[in-house]
Amino acid sequence: MYNLGALEATANEESGSRIFLYEVMGLRQSEETDQTNYPIRQSGSVFIRVPYNRMNQEMRRLTRLGGKIVSIQPISAIELNGKPPSESVKSEVVNNTISDETANIEGNGQATPVKANGEVKGFGKSLNSEQEDPKKDKKGNTMTQAKAKHADVPVNTYRPNAPFVGKCISNEPLVKENGIGIVQHLKFDLSESNLKYIEGQSIGIIPPGVDKNGKPEKLRLYSIASTRHGDDVDDKTVSLCVRQLEYKHPETSETVYGVCSTHLCFLKPGDEVKITGPVGKEMLLPDDTDAKVIMMATGTGIAPMRAYLWRMFKDAEKAANQDYQFNGFAWLIFGVPTTPNLLYKEELEEMEQKYPENFRLTCAISREQKNPQGGRMYIQDRVAEHADELWKLIKEEKTHTYICGLRGMEEGIDAALTAAAAKEGVTWSDYQKQIKKAGRWHVETY
After folding, report:
1. Of 21-35, 161-175, 213-227, 347-361, where does mean pLDDT reach its minimum?
2. In terms of residue numbers, what domain contains 227?
């Protein structure tokens, strides 16, 4: 029994070509599983098809539903890493990956299934022969000089079995007094590495130590918060925006802290850190300097948006990018719980003040602002408030939309845009598929 799940339907053209078959046992019938589009069986196996770019999220969701992933089988007809997709990823690998941080919902952190001796077969792409020197593109240009064409984007320069060991340069708090939680801006030294990256990509971090099974900790992915030139605009650093994961154990009520996020949030300058990657092509900016860019972020989902905005508006960046002088329009809708949690607040306000015709900032502060119904103001309420204006922008061929943050935020956004599109007799879900296929709708939630 093979079911085309909703997850597969949302896959983009690149990652959608890599589909994996999950064999799951033990799913129980519940209110939540009633909403799924695959049949639930009390015993035996359920087979679910999942695109590569949604594997992590689906693992966590199935675990919450009481399911046990027996195996993961690549079923794409396209060869991965030059080999037929025939090797299964067994449950031992999966369980080790997701058990050490049950929800792993800290900012942009996602556990990635890997084997002790490297990546799971078919998960990553090696450098092309033209990219043997990861510092240069096909024309011999450095990545600083090269444009962010998808074919030229560096991927997996450093793998889990051979990470780059860098050092923490700085670790600064981002949450102001009376804010909620711990969120840090970390900068790492890449000067001794060959690691180059593009805005919208992620790097992996391997925390020290072993998991509860005595095996080395698995890597977690974090969206990069700096441009390709780094915060110092010298091509020698990479920055992350990381929230310390903290949650109550569902059975013991004990407070649990994320392994990797805690490791990162309390690093000191000079401390070593194991870095892999870069990975990802879903969230890349278009080359068009006249593009219109809609960004919707919650919490540490601001990380890639910060990289975009620095590239567009920071003076030092503009000086370093003579072939990319942004003349378009960028609109950030940012959701946080309190004003002290407005990450990078001063940077954002400075850019809005300096470029009022090119950048617009709209905030949803849930514990301080009210929506029209008198409830808390969430990002989906802001989208609903500006739905007609957003819909008008989205219809333009030069518009790209980026969504990053906690999984589930997409539903409210879709509902608001469904209502706006319906006024013109357009079915939003159908239109959304079209712009996804065109590469103009980008989502990274966790």
Report:
1. 21-35
2. 129-279
Do both 300 and 257 map to the same domain? no
Confidence of residue 265 (pLDDT cuts 50, 70, 90): very high
**Distance (Å, whole) CA 404 – CA 298:** 7
Residue 215's pLDDT band, with cuts at 50, 70 and 90, is very high
Q: Which of 250, 279, 308 is the last residue of a domain?
A: 279
pLDDT at 439: 94
330/322 Cα distance (integer angstroms): 19
Q: Is residue 437 part of a domain?
A: yes
Same domain, 191 and 231: yes
In order of 307, 331, 434, the CA distances from 297 in angstroms are 13, 11, 22
Those residues whose C-beta lies under 8 Å from the C-beta of residue 428, and which sit 6 or more positions away, are: 414, 417, 418, 420, 421, 422
Residue at 13 is within a domain: yes
Q: Do 396 and 310 sit in the same domain of this protein?
A: yes
- Mean pLDDT over each residue of the chain, to the nearest integer: 79
> Does one domain contain both 156 and 197?
yes
Residues in the chain: 446
Q: Quickly state the pLDDT bin for 201 (edges 50, 70, 90).
A: very high
List the CATH number of the domain containing 275. Answer: 2.40.30.10
For residue 210, give the DSSP letter: B
DSSP string, 378-397: -HHHHHHHTHHHHHHHHTST
Residue 111 lies in a domain: no
218 closest CA partner among 279, 275, 266, 160: 160
Indicate the number of domains in the chain: 3
In a shared domain, residues 384 and 310: yes
Spatial strand order of the sheet with 3-4 comes to 3-4, 45-51, 19-25, 68-74, 89-90
Residue 435, token pair as written in the block: 């712009």
Flag the least confident range among 11-25, 64-78, 366-380: 11-25
Distances (CA, A) of 196 to 201, 206, 239: 10, 18, 13
Catalytic residues: 222-223, 404, 444, 446
Residues 6+ apart with CB under 8 A from 131: 137, 152, 154
